[in-house]
Write a structure and sequence with these properties.
The complex is a heterodimer of chains A (96) and B (485). By secondary structure, chain A is mostly helical. Helix content of chain A is 84%, strand content 0%. Chain A has one domain: Helix Hairpins. Chain A has helices at residues 3-24, 28-50, 60-95. The termini of chain A are far apart. In chain B, helix 8 (202-219) packs antiparallel against helix 10. Chain B has a two-stranded antiparallel ribbon. Chain B has a domain at 266-485. Chain B is built from 18 helices and two strands. Classes of the chains: A mainly alpha (96), B mainly alpha (485).
Chain lengths: 96, 485
C-alpha cells in the first residue's frame, strides 16, 4: 500500500462515518458534528489528491478549494447551531 | 485602470450592495429592496438587449480570463433565467410589502430584504458563472439565504423545517465540492470551456455523479426530496414563493449546464435520472392528493413538477439530448412563474380565511375570490392546459419522447398530468361550493391590492404560452447545445 492510497482510503472512511451519522443520528447536534466529519473527509480526499511524490510539489488549486470549503462550512455550521439553539428555546417555551 | 461598467457585473453587485445596505438601514429596507430590484431588472434588460443584438457576452473579471481568472458569460438561457428571477422576484417583493406590513412582522420585515437580496446575488451569480467552483460558492450563498428565508416566520415548525433544509443543503454542497475537486484532479481545469470534449472515463463519471447527487439534494429530486415539503409549506408566503419558484431552479440550471459541457455519461444513467423524475411525479402526486393543508399540497406539487423537469431531460435519450434541454428549460420557466403565483395566492387565502385546511376552505363565509381565481389560473399552467407556458413545455416534452419512441415517458407525463388535475380539483371543489355557509355572497369578497402581484404572475404564466416561439428562439442565442461555444 502506498501512502497516498492509505490516506485516500482514510478520507473515504471518515466521509463515510460522517455520512452515516448525518443520515441516521437522531440528536440534532450529533448530525451537525457528523456533517463536519463529512467535510473533513472530503477535504482530506482533495488534499491527498493534490499530493505529488517528491521532488514534485503539491497542486495548490485543490488546497484553495478545501480552504473555501472550510470557510463555507464554518458559516453553515454557525447557522445550523443558531437554528438548534432557537429550536431549543421554542421547545422549552412550548413545554412551559 | 478603468472600471468597466458592464450589465453582467451590475446584475451581481447591485443586489449584493443592496443586501448590505438593507441590513445596515433596516428602517429603509423595503425602499432599498425595491430600488435594488428595479436597478437589477434594468441591468438584466440591458444585458438582454446586448445578447439579442450581439449574441453571448463574455466578461473576464478584472481582465483575467479563464483558466487563471474567472469568466462571466451571458447567453440566451442565462438571460432567460435572470429575467425569470427578476420578474418573479419583483412581483413577489411587491406582494411582500403587503403581507409583511403588520406591526408584529417588524422583525420579519427587517430580515426579509437583506436575505432576499443576498439570494438574488447568489442566483444571478449562478446564472452568469462559467466555472464549476464559482457555482459551488454561489449555491452556498443561495443555501444560506434560503434557509434564512425558510425560518423567517420564527415558528417552531418553520425552524425545524429550516434545520432539515440546512442539513440537506450542507450535505449536497459537500458532495458537489468533492465532485468539483475530483474533476479538477483529473482534468486540471474548472471552467466550462476547459471541460468540453473530455473523455468520459469511469473516474470522471463518478465525479459527475457526486455533483449530480449533490444538486439533486439541493433541488429536491425524488428520493432526496424529504426536506422540501415541510420547508416550503411552513415558510411565510413571499418566502415560499421565492423558495419554490426560484431557489430550486438554480440547481436545476446547473444540471442543464453540466449536460451542455460535460461528456455524455451513458444511456443507462440518463434513464436512471428519468426514473428518479418519474418517481417524483408519482410520489409527489400521491402525497399532494393526501395533503391536508393547502400550502403542503402546493409544496408536494413542486416535488412532482421538479420530477417532470428531469423526465423532460431524459425523455429522448442521448440522441434527443440537444433538444430535450429546451423542453426542460421551458418547464423551468413555466414552473417558476406559476408556482410563485400559486404560493402567493395560497398565502392570501390563508391570510383572509385564517387557516389553510383544505377540507374546511368551503366552511368560511369569507371568499377571497380573486386569490382563488389566481390559484386556479396558476393551476391551469401547472396542469398544462393550453395556451399556458406549462402546456408548451409539456407538449415539447411529449413530442420528443414520442419521436424517439419512448412511450414510457409519455405515460409518466400523462399520469402526472392526471394526478395534478386530481389534486388541484380537491382545492377547486372547496372554492366552488357555496352551499355549506349561508352568509350572503358578496358580503366579504376579500379583495385587496395584495392580489395584484400574484394575479399578474398567474396571467403571465398563461399568456407567455402564446409567446413560446420567441422565448424558445431567445434561449437558443449563443447556445449551440452540445456544440462547444
Amino acid at each position: 500500500m502506498t501512502p497516498d492510497l492509505i490516506y485516500g482510503l482514510t478520507g473515504i472512511a471518515v466521509f463515510g462515518i460522517g455520512l452515516v451519522g448525518a443520515l441516521c443520528a437522531l440528536d440534532r447536534l450529533r448530525r451537525v458534528l457528523a456533517l463536519k466529519l463529512c467535510s473533513v473527509g472530503a477535504g482530506f480526499l482533495l488534499v491527498v489528491g493534490a499530493w505529488r511524490a517528491p521532488p514534485g510539489v503539491p497542486d495548490p488549486v485543490p488546497h484553495a478549494l478545501v480552504i473555501t470549503g472550510i470557510v463555507v462550512m464554518v458559516s453553515a455550521t454557525a447557522v445550523a447551531l443558531a437554528l438548534i439553539r432557537r429550536l431549543q428555546t421554542l421547545e422549552a417555551e412550548d413545554e412551559r | 485602470m478603468s472600471v468597466d461598467l458592464s450589465p453582467i457585473t451590475l446584475a451581481i453587485f447591485v443586489p449584493l450592495f443592496g443586501a448590505i445596505m438593507a441590513f445596515l438601514l433596516p428602517r429603509a429596507a423595503s425602499v432599498i429592496g425595491l430600488a435594488t430590484l428595479a436597478l437589477t431588472t434594468g441591468a438584466v434588460i440591458w444585458l438582454a438587449r446586448a445578447v439579442l443584438t450581439g449574441g453571448a457576452v463574455v466578461l473576464p473579471l478584472g481582465g483575467w480570463g479563464a483558466p487563471l481568472g474567472i469568466d462571466l458569460r451571458a447567453d440566451g438561457l442565462s438571460v432567460a433565467m435572470l429575467g425569470l428571477t427578476c420578474a418573479v422576484g419583483f412581483l413577489v417583493s411587491v406582494a411582500a410589502l403587503d403581507s409583511l406590513k403588520g406591526a408584529q412582522q417588524a422583525r420579519q420585515r427587517q430580515y426579509f430584504w437583506p436575505l432576499w437580496l443576498l439570494l438574488l446575488t447568489g442566483m444571478n451569480g449562478v446564472y452568469l458563472g462559467t466555472d464549476i467552483f464559482n457555482l459551488y460558492v454561489m449555491i452556498e450563498v443561495i443555501a444560506l439565504a434560503a434557509v434564512g428565508l425558510t425560518v423567517l416566520s420564527g415558528s417552531r415548525a418553520a425552524v425545524q423545517a429550516g434545520l432539515e433544509y440546512m442539513y440537506a443543503s450542507i450535505l449536497g454542497a459537500l458532495l458537489f465540492l468533492m465532485g468539483v475537486g475530483f474533476i479538477y484532479l483529473q482534468l486540471g481545469r474548472l471552467d466550462f470551456a476547459g471541460l468540453t470534449g473530455a473523455e468520459p472515463t469511469g473516474a470522471l463519471i463518478a465525479a459527475l455523479a457526486l455533483m449530480f447527487v449533490g444538486l439533486a439534494l439541493k433541488t429536491a429530486l425524488f428520493p432526496l426530496h424529504f426536506w422540501l415539503p415541510a420547508a416550503h409549506a411552513n415558510a411565510t408566503a413571499p418566502a415560499s414563493a421565492l423558495l419554490s419558484g426560484l431557489v430550486v431552479k438554480a440547481a436545476l440550471y446547473i444540471v442543464l449546464r453540466l449536460a451542455q459541457y460535460m461528456p455524455f455519461p451513458s444511456e443507462t444513467l440518463l434513464t436512471l435520472v428519468g426514473l428518479m423524475g418519474a418517481g417524483a411525479v408519482i410520489w409527489g402526486g400521491i402525497q399532494a392528493l393526501r395533503a391536508e393543508r393547502l400550502k403542503l399540497l402546493v409544496a408536494w406539487s413542486t416535488v412532482a413538477q421538479i420530477g417532470l423537469i428531469f423526465v423532460a431531460f431524459a425523455r429522448a435519450g442521448e440522441v434527443g439530448l440537444p433538444e430535450s434541454w429546451k423542453a426542460a428549460a421551458l418547464l423551468i420557466l413555466a414552473h417558476g412563474i406559476a408556482k410563485a403565483a400559486m404560493f402567493l395566492a395560497a398565502g392570501r387565502i390563508k391570510d383572509e380565511i385564517g387557516h389553510d385546511v383544505i377540507r374546511d376552505l368551503d366552511r368560511s363565509p369569507i371568499r377571497p375570490t380573486l386569490a382563488q381565481f389566481t390559484f386556479a389560473l396558476a393551476a391551469i399552467s401547472l396542469i398544462g392546459l393550453p395556451p399556458s407556458l406549462g402546456f408548451i413545455g409539456k407538449w415539447s416534452l411529449m413530442e420528443g419522447a414520442m419521436a424517439a419512441g419512448y412511450w414510457h415517458w409519455v405515460a409518466v407525463t400523462m399520469a402526472g398530468t392526471l394526478m395534478s388535475v386530481a389534486y388541484f380539483s380537491r382545492v377547486f371543489a372547496g372554492f366552488l361550493r357555496f352551499d355549506r355557509v349561508r352568509a350572503p355572497v358578496g358580503e366579504h369578497q376579500g379583495w385587496a391590492l395584495a392580489d395584484a402581484a400574484p394575479l399578474t404572475l398567474a396571467l403571465a404564466a398563461i399568456g407567455l404560452g402564446l409567446l413560446a416561439a420567441p422565448i424558445l428562439g431567445f434561449i437558443e442565442i449563443g447556445y449551440p447545445f452540445g456544440v462547444a461555444p
